[in-house]
Amino acid sequence: MSVDDVVSSGVNVTASGIVLNIPVVPTNATLQHPVLMGDETAPIAPTPVWYNGVEVWTYVFEVTDQTAADFFDATRTDGDADYAITVLPYLISNDAVSYIPLWHMNQYTRGVTEGVNGGGPDPAGHKNIINMDRPDAGYSPLWEIYWVTDLPVDYMADQVSNVADMTPENGFEYTVTPMYVNCPDIGPVGDMINMDIAETYKTAVNHGDTSNWVSGSDLGLIMTEGVSILFVGDNETIGSTVTNMMGGFEYELYSSDLAMTILSIDIVMESDMSVLKTLEVVHSHPTDMDPSDEGDMDHDHMDHDEGDMDHDNSGDSSDGVAYRTFAIASLGGLMVAVMLL
Question: End of a domain among 37, 65, 87?
Answer without folding.
Answer: 87
